[in-house]
Specification:
The chain is mostly beta strands. It contains 1 helix and 8 strands; from the N terminus they run E-E-E-E-E-E-H-E-E. Strands 2-5-4-3 form a 4-stranded mixed beta sheet, with no helix packed on it. A two-stranded parallel ribbon has the order 1-6. The protein has a two-stranded antiparallel sheet with strand order 7-8. The longest helix is centred in the C-terminal third of the chain and has 6 residues.
């Protein structure tokens, strides 16, 4: 299960098996979560999952964070890629109005 998080700076998961592609990067991203926990990520990759309705979703630049409790989809990252994130009646919708939204 993935949670859409308006406070997350990155897409993140703790499940290494979720990645279709994962590589170690020369980076040191420190993540602070609401539980005051601090986590470090040095791996980034692509996660593909099936939506309830329609096509699969490809999330790029997903951080692997081993101590994370939940999988997070970052609203800010989606918006940076040109998507509008619309919340309506308990559901979230992604809409790409701009030409060339990045996947």
């Amino acid at each position: 299960m993935w949670y859409i998080d308006s406070g997350a700076s990155f897409h993140m998961t703790k499940n290494r098996k979720s990645f279709s592609h994962l590589k170690e990067k020369d980076m040191h991203v420190q993540i602070e979560l609401g539980d005051d926990g601090q986590y470090v990520s040095r791996r980034v990759g692509i996660v593909i999952f099936q939506r309830d309705l329609g096509n699969s979703v490809h999330l790029r630049d997903v951080l692997y964070v081993s101590g994370l409790r939940q999988n997070l989809v970052s609203v800010a990252t989606l918006e940076d890629k040109g998507y509008d994130v619309i919340f309506n009646r308990g559901k979230a919708y992604l809409q790409c109005l701009a030409y060339g939204c990045k996947k």
